């Protein structure tokens, strides 16, 4: 039997599959998130050292890829076969598009001569991916391979980052003939932001004037601060000019939440026992608000009711369409990092006496809020008996997190818990799937984060509903040696759905309750350590064991099924416990 082997050569010619692999190598690609297909490309990549991270299902592969991008600012590659495998990329690409993270999807396509003949698993990929990608093209001829690979990366990483899809016709990628490599293509486009732009200087000057003269300004930082790597610039403005900073969920980590001028995460979860609940008046009394990399979406603005109508708004964003989408703003269209650098210079050219004179009062208000929150939480964090509440569990997790830990959440209530009850310190990294906020992202995102930072520890919180979508990827963790700690909130319900329906309709649909699953057995079936926690006194030992392990661990947290998160509309369901 012939063994297909791809090798580098110095002839200036090679197969089309190897040309694709060499192009990916030029763009810094280290991994393919894939499941064999297209096999010629995967094998060629393997032969030059690009490793396949073989997922169990395509959707999980895209989730891994996005988290990898979030942790490295490099553009990941996900691969899939045509037809049903391609359709399973849609959810992950949609999340990446809304969250503004780049992915290049290489999708096998039927041979060009077989188009529109009902070839096996033929589907119109151009229509399929139209709503979930920035760009979708098919390589038209072998002569353009390097051109189209480059276009896919440039488009993904430029402007507002997002996913691109490149279709690879089967007859091109399986052709065993050798063709000239386009050696004019030498640049690498594998990182983002690819091209940083800066806002109009005259508008930056006006923004600095508004902020320096405002009575009660604050900065509301979104995920764009993180993706632009503008944390240092934001923190410098916070400290030097005494301006308090709040964050969205995806912006968590942009500033240190122990800083005396950090408001914390705000939005729809400022209900009972929310970490920033007592600072709602500060937010609503603001007269100037600087939005940075912030989509002003429904959850981040509590259905557009949280931010004051009469405030002046300044909006920094790489996407001009986002500026003023929901709040008419002074438009600072540009990269967050460069524009904040420019803003800092302009603020330095102005008097900061007003800001400095108000600092003590602002710090006192924030400190009082934190003390009130601690009082709100006292009965829970000191609880020693009864059903386990997630806040009580995270209180113990917090003690074991390092300042450079990577903390991941699934969507829905898991994101609310992590945003409110784990602290952003120094450069601790937080990952949330809040572009579209679908269930099932948690574990795969934790895996992608670990691949990106193999020297760092990764903790992931998921619900039992979302975990059920992707627990097959535990086998991937075992097979590839990907080490993460996953805590599963095992309460036998679709929590957010059940609580929201109860508030809105006074009843809930039957899927909101489901059978209890012993997730330790699922983990053990995959060769992963499982730890079941049923009592409060078992929490700390379980965390210690999990965090000290050199392999992946699943903590099965049997918890209270009436554990209401601090979402304002759910306050009526809260008890005093």
**CATH class identity of the largest domain:** Alpha Beta
Main β-sheet description: 6 strands, parallel
Q: If you compute it from the alpha carbons, what radius of gyration comes out, rounded to the nearest whole angstrom? A: 25 Å
Q: What is the topology, as strand order, of the major beta sheet?
A: 3-2-4-5-7-6
Rough shape? globular
Strand content: 15-25%
Helix content: 25-40%
**What is the annotated CATH architecture of the largest domain?**
3-Layer(aba) Sandwich
Low-confidence stretches: none
Number of strands: 20
SS content category = alpha/beta
Keywords:
577 residues; alpha/beta; Rossmann fold; 6-stranded parallel beta sheet; 22 helices; 38% helix; 15% strand
Summary of the model, kept short:
The chain has 577 residues and is α/β, with parallel strands linked by helices. The strands form four sheets. The chain has a six-stranded parallel sheet, sandwiched between helices. A six-stranded parallel sheet has the order 11-10-9-12-13-14.
